[in-house]
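A reminder before we start the practical. When you read a complex entry, don't treat the lines as separate problems. The point of joint prediction is that each chain is placed relative to the others, so the output describes one connected object in space. Small molecules and nucleic acid strands, if listed, are placed in the same frame. In the example below there are four entries. Take a minute to note the order of the lines before looking further.
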Amino acid sequence: MNTDVSEILKRNQLSVTESRRRILDLFKNNNGALAHADIEKHTGEQFDRVTIYRTLQTFVEKGIVHTIPTADNSVLYALCKDDCEPGHHHDNHIHFICDQCGTTYCLDHLTIPQVSLPHGFRETRTDLVVSGKCDKCA
Amino acid sequence: MNTDVSEILKRNQLSVTESRRRILDLFKNNNGALAHADIEKHTGEQFDRVTIYRTLQTFVEKGIVHTIPTADNSVLYALCKDDCEPGHHHDNHIHFICDQCGTTYCLDHLTIPQVSLPHGFRETRTDLVVSGKCDKCA
DNA sequence: GTAACTGCAAAATATTTGCATCCTT
DNA sequence: AAGGATGCAAATATTTTGCAGTTAC
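Here is the predicted structure of the whole assembly.
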């Protein structure tokens, strides 16, 4: 599992450091999204706040994780699917955010329907975020 | 036009003050979304930053404007359609954000397709945000 | 006149940057 | 050994809160 995580880092030309392994592990063991604060908490404040910012930013740049736009404009991160590349994300799945427990689900199996835009508009990215109550909270 | 705006405020049990009229006017004359900074700029720094925060918050609570989740997690606000009520928004239209010029369009005529969620999940709000280049920038 | 709204000051949060030190390769 | 990554300090930026003065009704 750690190997797994290290692989991902190496594949992206990133040196394998503890913070990166730990944070990436978190995402792996969490089929959902994490906020900066979640990461701080789950790593037991082991890493500097700044390190987490920089790690997340690096991961986003490399296409390892992506941000999720939320209705309350908090910043969430989630693991990318395999077909993401640096600078080019393909996370066309739907995100579900539970208003009650705050958990964010990546609904990988649901794909975002094609949107027919007005003439002249070119799409590069589409986000579909559903809010409500999840099965545990409903 | 000002009457128009005042009407909306009265209908929502808000006293008609200059800041509220000016800010609501901005939205009326701008079929797009505005960020906090846009409002500051367009009102010529006439109003305190805090007043703008509070005005926007009030508008959101009353269902006059709604926030738009964006891929870069900046905070955007746009006018609600008529069928919005306090605490219950129905802005099921698609938003388009131009990466180039930064303009946000409310594509009112396009409605968000129904999403069939996993068993037990209940939807209360859905946001569909498309990013790319608008017709002017493409 | 009273309740609601605004502006100012300041606190609380969140994010970014510079730099010296430490770790990975 | 060299380059990159981290931690700390501090600079910025963003948002919230308290309170006194002002305005709308």
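Discuss with your neighbour: Residues 15-18, 36, 49-50, 53-54, 75 of chain B lie near DNA strand D (CB under 10 Å from a C1'). What might explain this?
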